[in-house]
Amino acid sequence: MSNRDAVTQLMREVGPLADLLLVEQSAAGDFWRLIVDETTEVTAELDEAAEVLEFATILGRPAEADQLRIFSLLLQFNRHYGDTGVVLALDTPTGQVLQLHRRPLRAIDLTALAALIRALAERHVALRGLVTASAPPREDALSASMDEFTIRV
């Protein structure tokens, strides 16, 4: 079975296990929209050459007045990539902040995929609040919450 076929099969099965509202596959067969709830969508894209699935969520666009503060938080968060497995990035054409995670195909089975999607969705909600909030978060709250963002699957 090809990697694409294996991932397609996992995506068919993960919806009920992770209690997703919708799993939608692109016509090309290498991109999936995973609708977790009314406000949370996780996307997954197969990179066959690298043998990884690349996951993303859109956290939102920070207000112009908050961009310096938010970009500083992104850099602080990314410093912990080794612990979190997540990178926060800026999509330059849209100004949206993205949560990104790459997972080798060899490290994905059905249970791990369901847990990963739920973890990304939970972190999405918390991170979206940081990105779109207009009041600066307390430094101690950011430091204390780093463990919450560790993806352990």
Give a description of the structure:
- This protein is α+β, with helices and mostly antiparallel strands.
- The chain has a single domain (3-149), classed as Yope Regulator, Chain: A, CATH 3.30.1460.10.
- The chain is 40% helix and 27% strand.
- The protein is built from five helices and six strands; from the N terminus they run αββββααββαα.
- It has helices at residues 3-17, 67-78, 81-84, 110-132, 139-145; strands at 22-25, 31-37, 40-47, 52-60, 87-91, 96-104.
- A hairpin with a 4-residue loop joins strand 3 (40-47) and strand 4.
- The longest helix is centred in the last third of the chain and has 23 residues, at 110-132.
- The two termini are 24 Å apart.
- Residues 135-153 have low confidence and may be disordered.
What's the arrangement of secondary structure elements?
Layout: H1 3-17, E1 22-25, E2 31-37, E3 40-47, E4 52-60, H2 67-78, H3 81-84, E5 87-91, E6 96-104, H4 110-132, H5 139-145
Antiparallel strand pairs: 1-2, 2-3, 3-4, 4-6, 5-6
Helix pairs in contact: 1-4
